[in-house]
Structures are given as structure tokens and as C-alpha cells.
């Protein structure tokens, strides 16, 4: 998921700064399919996390728990809102060759399109700021002597 997030933010930043550049033409077509894949992975991940709730390590602080909760909420809402706008636009959509939406004739569903136009990019950039803060927090904990902090993400903690 980390690699896919890196990809999706490269595509968003290029699209914002240099739409129609060669790099944009290469990255942008994957924005929606990769976004949908991230939504599916997030749902699997959240399900896995809930199944293992009784044996999850405790958060290191309430602040960390709140920050991670916000990241989870945004990881869900951003692609969901993207998909809602896609549906409302009435255009067909397939991801990695798999048909996802058939599209429909006639008027767009305006509230769906507006929801996407008003919130998708805004929340997307908000999450990028949070991610940078999140990585900053890891660096801070590491410098303060908590050398295990990264291990909690990569390998987990040993249960007693
Ligand atoms: C976790 C997944 C996603 C993230 C983090 C994300 C993030 C972003 C960001 C930051 C932008 C702003 C780029 C800009 O201003 O040029 C953007 C634009 C856009 N995203 Fe996503 N996105 C995700 C998933 C999706 C999905 C699933 C769809 C549709 C199926 C989608 C459709 C779009 C479209 C159409 C735009 C262009 C919006 C515009 O030009 O107003 N995104 N996305
Ligand atoms: C270089 C990039 C990153 C580093 C070094 C990093 C590091 C960490 C560390 C050390 C933890 C464990 C914290 C703890 O146990 O209290 C963690 C957890 C977490 N990270 Fe990251 N992270 C990175 C990128 C991301 C990204 C891109 C996202 C999502 C958009 C993300 C979302 C989360 C979430 C939601 C948790 C909590 C997991 C849970 O307990 O269920 N991280 N990260």
C-alpha cells in the first residue's frame, strides 16, 4: 500500500503541476485504477485489523491513535468519494481491464459530481499533509531513542 500511495501521489502532484506533460500522460491513466485498488486493500486491511483486535499492540499514545484513526478515515473516504463522482458522471469505468461501472445515458447525477469536485482533491491534499506529519512523528520518536518504532510498522511487536 505504501508503494501504491507513493504512485498515486506522484500522479496527483504531476497532474496538479504539469497536466498534459509527458509524465502526466504516463501516470494519470493509473490514478483511478490504483485508487480503487487502494480502497479494496484498505477494506481488507481494516477487516484483518478488526479480526485481530484482541491481539493488537496498544497505541503509543492517544495522539498517535487519533492520528492513525484520521489516516484510516481519509484512506477510506478519498477513494470512495472518487468512485461516487465517477458513478455520478455516468461514464463507464474499468480498472486493469475489469469492468467496474457500466455508465448510463442521460444527465449526470449532480450531487455526486459536486461531492467529488468539492472534497476529493481537498481531502487528498489534507492526507498528504498528515502523512508528512506521520513520517515526521516517526523520525521524532526515533531521535528520542525509540529505536523500535519503525519495527512496529514493518514487522509488528512481539506478543507476551
Ligand atoms: C487513496 C486514493 C486516492 C488518493 C490519495 C487521491 C488523491 C488525489 C489528489 C491529491 C488529487 C488532486 C490532483 C489535482 O489537483 O490535480 C486527485 C484528483 C483526482 N482524483 Fe484522486 N485520489 C485517489 C483515488 C481516486 C479514485 C478511486 C478516483 C476515481 C475513480 C479518483 C479520481 C480523481 C480525479 C478524476 C481527479 C481530478 C480531479 C480534478 O481535476 O478536479 N481518485 N486525487
Ligand atoms: C515513509 C513512510 C512511512 C513511515 C516511515 C511510517 C511509519 C509508521 C510507523 C512507525 C507506524 C507504527 C506506529 C505505532 O505503532 O504507533 C505506522 C503506523 C501507521 N501508518 Fe505509517 N508510515 C509511513 C507511511 C504511511 C502512509 C503513506 C500511510 C497511509 C496513508 C500510513 C498510515 C499508517 C497507519 C494508519 C498506521 C497505524 C496502523 C495501525 O496501528 O493499525 N503510513 N507507520
From TrEMBL:
<keyword id="KW-1133">Transmembrane helix</keyword>
<feature type="domain" description="Cytochrome b561 bacterial/Ni-hydrogenase">
    <location>
        <begin position="1"/>
        <end position="156"/>
    </location>
</feature>
<dbReference type="InterPro" id="IPR016174">
    <property type="entry name" value="Di-haem_cyt_TM"/>
</dbReference>
<comment type="similarity">
    <text>Belongs to the cytochrome b561 family.</text>
</comment>
<feature type="transmembrane region" description="Helical">
    <location>
        <begin position="122"/>
        <end position="142"/>
    </location>
</feature>
<dbReference type="InterPro" id="IPR011577">
    <property type="entry name" value="Cyt_b561_bac/Ni-Hgenase"/>
</dbReference>
<keyword id="KW-0479">Metal-binding</keyword>
<protein>
    <submittedName>
        <fullName>Cytochrome b/b6 domain-containing protein</fullName>
    </submittedName>
</protein>
<keyword id="KW-0249">Electron transport</keyword>
<keyword id="KW-0349">Heme</keyword>
<dbReference type="InterPro" id="IPR052168">
    <property type="entry name" value="Cytochrome_b561_oxidase"/>
</dbReference>
<feature type="transmembrane region" description="Helical">
    <location>
        <begin position="63"/>
        <end position="84"/>
    </location>
</feature>
<keyword id="KW-0812">Transmembrane</keyword>
<keyword id="KW-0813">Transport</keyword>
<keyword id="KW-1003">Cell membrane</keyword>
<dbReference type="Pfam" id="PF01292">
    <property type="entry name" value="Ni_hydr_CYTB"/>
</dbReference>
<keyword id="KW-0408">Iron</keyword>
<feature type="transmembrane region" description="Helical">
    <location>
        <begin position="35"/>
        <end position="51"/>
    </location>
</feature>
<keyword id="KW-0472">Membrane</keyword>
Amino acid at each position: 500500500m505504501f508503494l501504491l500511495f507513493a504512485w498515486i501521489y506522484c500522479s496527483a502532484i504531476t497532474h496538479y503541476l504539469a497536466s498534459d506533460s509527458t509524465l502526466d500522460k504516463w501516470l494519470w491513466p493509473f490514478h483511478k485504477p490504483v485508487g480503487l485498488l487502494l480502497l479494496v486493500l484498505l477494506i481488507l486491511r481494516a477487516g484483518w485489523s478488526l479480526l485481530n483486535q484482541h491481539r493488537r499492540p496498544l497505541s503509543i499514545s492517544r495522539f498517535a491513535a487519533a492520528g492513525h484513526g484520521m489516516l484510516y478515515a481519509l484512506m477510506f473516504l478519498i477513494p470512495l468519494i472518487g468512485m461516487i463522482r465517477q458513478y455520478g458522471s455516468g461514464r463507464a469505468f474499468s480498472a486493469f481491464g475489469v469492468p467496474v461501472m457500466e455508465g448510463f445515458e442521460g444527465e449526470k447525477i449532480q450531487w455526486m459530481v459536486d461531492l467529488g469536485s468539492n472534497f476529493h482533491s481537498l481531502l487528498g491534499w489534507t492526507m498528504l499533509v498528515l502523512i508528512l506529519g506521520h513520517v515526521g512523528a516517526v523520525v521524532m520518536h526515533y531521535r528520542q531513542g525509540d529505536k523500535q518504532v519503525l519495527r512496529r510498522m514493518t514487522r509488528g511487536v512481539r506478543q507476551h
